[in-house]
Amino acid sequence: MSIHKAVIPAAGQGTRFLPATKASPKEMLPVVDVPAIEYVVREAVAAGLEDVLMVTGRGKRALEDHFDRNVELEAGLEAKGDDSKLDKVRSSTDLAQVHYVRQGDPRGLGHAVHVAKAHVGDEPFAVLLGDDLIDPRDPLLTTMTALQERVGGSVVALLEVPRDQVHLYGCATLDDAASDALEEDVVKITGMVEKPAVEDAPSNLAIIGRYVLHPAVFDVLDRTPPGKGGEIQLTDALQTLAGMPVEEGGGVHGVVFRGRRYDTGDKLDYIKAVVRLACEREDLGPELREWLRDSVDELTAAPAQGS
């Protein structure tokens, strides 16, 4: 069955970015001049998923406003003849069919996915986490949906990380023999552990924020008890799916991602993402790169001058 629905969990409070997120959703933090959430929606659309459900909560009205019409603003720009800005404002409105549902009681990523059940129905769907921005030149989601359509079950995105960082992620256990028979950078997963201690990690392949899930995940989440942190973990449900027969919607594969990824969930990585993407833009890049070179030279020389 072809995949055309995407779910974006967006109910988190964004406490790592306080006070900036006290009154504004973290998903609306600008990456240069585009909200982070728009990058994620554009990625879904580029993969052919134009039916997007955002799972939100209190204080997230700005997300709905961003993807809605702003008639007064559009009229003002049109009267000024500012077609460039008018096109930018309208592009987010026309981007996709965006729907919204509230998570209510925030009980973890697994719970947020389960809230999407009524909208998704009985078909495979993608889940995109807003903290991970994938460069549009690296079509990870397209690769994942194509794999799911071929092999069934569920598919997760994996990233090789330094061993001392595995405790920050969900971590995958592989069926090495089955993986060897698959195409390059595709692996068969037999289990997953949420944020394991370094000494207990089964591999250095971390699960990042892209999933293509079989609808069997909803029944599994129904009977998944709270796990790490007292929350319903999607990783625990995937662990169950990995041991189920394919004909029942089981089986989990992974796509090892080797492209460009920007983490906007961490302050330093968020700044790096803004700088990197701005440097690659034709309108900002040349002047910004020159300023960065001068600034690095100045900062490097400062200690030697006693500054």
UniProtKB/TrEMBL annotation:
Q: Which gene encodes it?
A: galU
PANTHER family membership: UTP--GLUCOSE-1-PHOSPHATE URIDYLYLTRANSFERASE
Query: What EC number(s) does this enzyme carry?
Result: 2.7.7.9
Catalytic reactions on record:
alpha-D-glucose 1-phosphate + UTP + H(+) = UDP-alpha-D-glucose + diphosphate
One biological-process term from Gene Ontology? Answer: UDP-alpha-D-glucose metabolic process
Gene3D superfamilies documented for this protein: Spore Coat Polysaccharide Biosynthesis Protein SpsA, Chain A
Report keywords, A-Z: Nucleotidyltransferase, Transferase
**What is the name attached to this protein's record?**
UTP--glucose-1-phosphate uridylyltransferase
Protein's UniProt keywords contain Membrane: no
Gene Ontology MF annotations: UTP:glucose-1-phosphate uridylyltransferase activity
Note one Pfam family from the annotation.
Answer: NTP_transferase
Highest taxon of source = Bacteria
Give the family from UniProt: Belongs to the UDPGP type 2 family.
Please state every residue range assigned to the domain named Nucleotidyl transferase.
5-274
